[in-house]
Amino acid sequence: MAGPGFRGHPAGPLLLLLLLLLRQALTEGPLVFVAVVFRHGDRAPLASYPTDPHKENIATLWPRGLGQLTREGVHQQLELGRFLRSRYESFLSPQYRREEVYIRSTDFDRTLESAQANLAGLFPEASPGRSEATWQPIPVHTVPVTEDKLLRFPTRSCPRYRELLREATEAAEYKAALEGWTDFLTRLENFTGLSLVGEPLRKAWKVLDTLICQQAHGLPLPSWASPDVLQTLAQISALDIGAHVGPPRAAEKAQLTGGILLDAILANFSRVQHLGLPLKMVMYSAHDSTLLALQGALGLYDGHTPPYAACLGFEFRRHLGDLDDNRGNVTISLFYRNDSTGLPLTLKLPGCPAPCSLGRFRQLTAPARPSVQGIPCHGSHEPATPAATVVPLLSGAVAVLAVLSMGLGLMAWRPGCLRAWGGPV
Ligand SMILES: *[C@@H]1O[C@H](CO)[C@@H](O)[C@H](O)[C@H]1NC(C)=O
Ligand SMILES: *[C@@H]1O[C@H](CO)[C@@H](O)[C@H](O)[C@H]1NC(C)=O
Ligand SMILES: *[C@@H]1O[C@H](CO)[C@@H](O)[C@H](O)[C@H]1NC(C)=O
Ligand SMILES: CC(=O)N[C@H]1CO[C@H](CO)[C@@H](O)[C@@H]1O
């Protein structure tokens, strides 16, 4: 990051940091609201494959079971929680206050445990090693997987989404890329004992996931699993993810997936402002598929898969100097922390200079967020559906329309529409 002039000079990094802080102080006002969405920490592989040399030892290698959080995963979340504490030291109260922070997780062991480990890093009274007399657990909210509209998305079983996906996979570039990998997949079939050619690419991703987990835990990989093979598998999975969250019609896909969460975050902030609520931070403990869908909705998916404990943050600030302008007094900036060894990246919403005014942010993301007519393939079980939370912003007539269409949505609700596209990972 430092230019050539800074390198080698002992005070370079310090100077750079001071400059960054100065720039931040000049361009950014005080924080008013934060939403963070993070992936769970390191976990055991989700599955094995027929020729897996480590297949027989699953119970000893992964004593907590496949797909479960590991010690390393707990540590990563503690560390992320400590990072959030340092970032929001002067924003949050020193201790957890229920009216200030709300934590929601998907209903999986690894995300629920990740949320708790994160909170143990964020709040001193929940930290490990705290004396029993002062130790205090912190609540994590969830809803059953089949009712989760915010953090898991009914794509594979949603007819409209399947149609959009078909359009992506029938595109010439997609087909050409896949064609180019047929030989590779055929060889992989022989190595793994799985059938992969003509199957969903997610199956190839699962092989990659198993290998990466084993490698990360120091297990020797079979000789065919060379770095080249892993890299090709990563490219194949990026093609698959791109088809799910990218063009064509990325915005319409987002309306059925990540745009719902994006809308909920904006609606959350609006409610806080309009009702003058003391809520300061909402935390979502979820999956890489959640982050990928959110990146898709923001037009920020770039082929990289979020690593464990990757965290995407939305920071709402009061903009200095423009306070009497009813629409222009709040800005949103985005950060992405996918590497615990450095400062988080500042992301820029395409088409908006950072920090982006809330009005412009809303306008630019509107096509990716669900319309008030409701969300296909989603029921309206949750009281805080995005459509309901934006009601205070709308005229009475539109509000009535939204309520009516939610009612219709409920009538059209089908359990078959509730499974996620690839399952969370
Ligand atoms: C892979 O191919 C070799 C040689 O053709 C064969 O002996 C072996 O059984 C195959 N393995 C699998 C898992 O299909
Ligand atoms: C922005 O301005 C409006 C109207 O002046 C006010 O109601 C709102 O609280 C302000 N928001 C912030 C974060 O200052
Ligand atoms: C973090 O994300 C950025 C942007 O997607 C990417 O360039 C970088 O390689 C990622 N780093 C890690 C460690 O994943
Ligand atoms: C104040 C407010 O709108 N809070 C909501 C924020 O979003 C969560 C769901 O993610 C709701 O449960 C809260 O009620």
Automatic annotation (TrEMBL):
CDD domains in UniProt: HP_HAP_like
PROSITE patterns referenced in this protein's UniProt entry, alphabetically: HIS_ACID_PHOSPHAT_1, HIS_ACID_PHOSPHAT_2
Keyword Transmembrane (UniProt): yes
Gene Ontology MF: a single term: acid phosphatase activity
Protein name (database record): acid phosphatase
Keywords: Glycoprotein, Hydrolase, Membrane, Signal, Transmembrane, Transmembrane helix
Entry similarity comment: Belongs to the histidine acid phosphatase family.
Segments passing through the bilayer: 390-413
GO CC, any one term: postsynaptic membrane
Broad EC category: hydrolase
EC numbers on record: 3.1.3.2
A single BP term in Gene Ontology: negative regulation of protein processing
Top-rank lineage group of the source organism: Eukaryota
InterPro entries recorded: Acid_Pase_AS (IPR033379), His_Pase_clade-2 (IPR000560), His_PPase_superfam (IPR029033), Histidine_acid_phosphatase (IPR050645)
Signal sequence, renumbered to the chain: 1-27
Catalysis: reaction(s): a phosphate monoester + H2O = an alcohol + phosphate
Pfam families for this protein: His_Phos_2 (PF00328)
Gene name linked to the record: ACP4
